[in-house]
Amino acid sequence: MKLAEAKSKIKNGLKKGFIIEFARVISSGGSVSERIPDLGENLFKTEDEAWDFAQKLADESTGEYVDFVVVDARFKAVPSAKRRKIQNY
């Protein structure tokens, strides 16, 4: 497959929607990157839906999950990420 063809497949094959990226705190004091939904699952349809879900997860996790940010299907932070990031420390 040529590079141009591969780029086209990547560009045109991406789903539209939003993903929540966050960190899971582990017992050693470090963290592991996580995301919802997992690859292959349906993405959140709207940015607000993703932020609302992230807030609910943060509220329920009592510090187990931190640093929530919503990204688009290309894994780029949405414009509102700077003001809406949920730290949950």
Structural key phrases:
89 residues, globular, single chain, 3 helices, 25% strand, three-stranded antiparallel β-sheet, alpha+beta
Mind explaining what this structure looks like?
- The chain is an alpha+beta fold and 89 residues long.
- It is built from three helices and three strands; from the N terminus they run H-E-E-H-E-H.
- The chain has helices spanning 3-13, 47-61, 81-84; strands at 18-25, 31-36, 65-72.
- A three-stranded antiparallel sheet has the order 2-1-3, with helices on one face.
- A hairpin with a 5-residue loop joins strand 1 (18-25) and strand 2.
- The mean pLDDT is 88.
In short:
Helix content is 34%, strand content 25%.
Blueprint of the fold:
Blueprint: H1 3-13, E1 18-25, E2 31-36, H2 47-61, E3 65-72, H3 81-84
Antiparallel strand pairs: 1-2, 1-3
Tell me the number of strands.
3
| Helix count from the secondary structure assignment | 3
User: What's the overall average pLDDT, rounded?
Assistant: 88
- Spatial extent as radius of gyration: 15 Å
Q: Please tell me what the overall shape is.
A: globular
Class per helix and strand makeup: alpha+beta
In terms of DSSP E residues, the strand content is 15-25%
Would you list the SSEs in sequence order as H and E? HEEHEH
Spatial gap, N to C terminus: 46 Å
